[in-house]
Amino acid sequence: MQDFKEYAKDFADASRGVYGSHAYAAGYFESMAAQMFRSLTVAEQQRFLREMREAANKMVDSIDS
Question: 10 near 3, Cβ under 8 Å?
Answer without folding.
Answer: no
